[in-house]
Amino acid sequence: MEVDEFYDDTSPEIWMKVIGNDLHYHVGWGEGDILYNAVKHLYQFIDKKSSVLDCGCGWGGTGKVLKRDMDCEVTGVTISQVQSDYISDNNLFPVVLSDLHDYIPNKVYDVCLFVESFCHLKSPQKVLSNISNSTDKILSLIHISEPTRLLSISDAGLC
């Protein structure tokens, strides 16, 4: 099953009943507010008021935290129509409905961020090539409860 089919087949209300009101689930483990704690580990790499492209933004959990805590200007990219509609309908932040393999940003961002989305890419090299001219900083958090597994690529031009 493709990622968009997985999310688009069920309403946000059903997802909330399954994974909670913040609409975030993860492949890691931990205690407390795992999403919030994981995003806090990114703050050392993201300046306040940064422009952030959240690649594979899901339901917008990471973007909401970055906007609230760091006053970031967030733009999300998702392949899911239902997720895109949810983010737009709730005025969370601007969102682009696109497959990341086809998406080429039309502006420069301070940070391009992958939170548990990089593993879903069929061709990571193509996606990195598509976004490399739009940022100097790419962050990928593999498992949100394991901040030591954070991958920071400071010079996206090398990708």
What fraction of the residues are assigned to beta strands by DSSP?
15-25%
DSSP E strands, number = 6
| Straight-line distance between termini | 28 Å
Helix content: 25-40%
The biggest beta sheet is recorded as: 6 strands, mixed
Radius of gyration: 15 Å
Structural category is alpha/beta
Strand order of the largest sheet: 3-2-1-4-5-6
Quick check: average pLDDT?
81
Element pattern in H and E: HHHEHEHEEHEE
Shape: globular
Number of helices: 6
* Uncertain spans: 27-31, 145-159
Report what the structure shows.
This protein has 159 residues and is an alpha/beta fold. Helix content is 30%, strand content 17%. The chain has helices at 3-8, 12-19, 34-40, 61-70, 81-89, 124-131; strands spanning 51-55, 73-78, 95-97, 111-115, 138-141, 150-153. α4 (61-70) links the parallel β1 and β2. It starts with a helix and ends in a 6-residue tail after the last strand.
Primary descriptors:
globular, 159 residues, 6 strands, six-stranded mixed β-sheet, alpha/beta, 6 helices
Secondary structure: elements and pairs:
Elements: H1 3-8, H2 12-19, H3 34-40, E1 51-55, H4 61-70, E2 73-78, H5 81-89, E3 95-97, E4 111-115, H6 124-131, E5 138-141, E6 150-153
Can you summarize this structure?
This protein has a 6-stranded mixed sheet, with helices on one face.
